[in-house]
Give the backbone structure.
Amino acid sequence: MEKAIHYGGQQVLVSNEVAEFLESDERRQAARDRSDRRHLSKSNFETVSVAQKSINQHCIEDIAFRNLSLEKLQKVIAALSDDEQTLIRLYFYMDMSMDEVGKHFGISKMAVSKRLKKLYTKIRDLL
């Protein structure tokens, strides 16, 4: 008995044994294609993981750079005069207003503003 199959864009008559072999071969190929797609999708996932590792490495480098910058800033602040350190501590760490800082030093708000501006320039130059 013969069976018609599609081969090369045409219908061809082949024996049942050949038709069954070709059908099982098509099923094997379809299973292989599904397996390949799973492996490709896993490969894409692994690529994302590698990219994630790269991002994490970048974050670690940013943290290290930030820590080094803060360490350098601490050294610069330690090299300032006592009054300059007190000004920084009151204004930035204790969140005092310029008026409050001025009362502490016995100077005007404008004088505090000018001292802070000079201090910014000095710190920037030392960094």
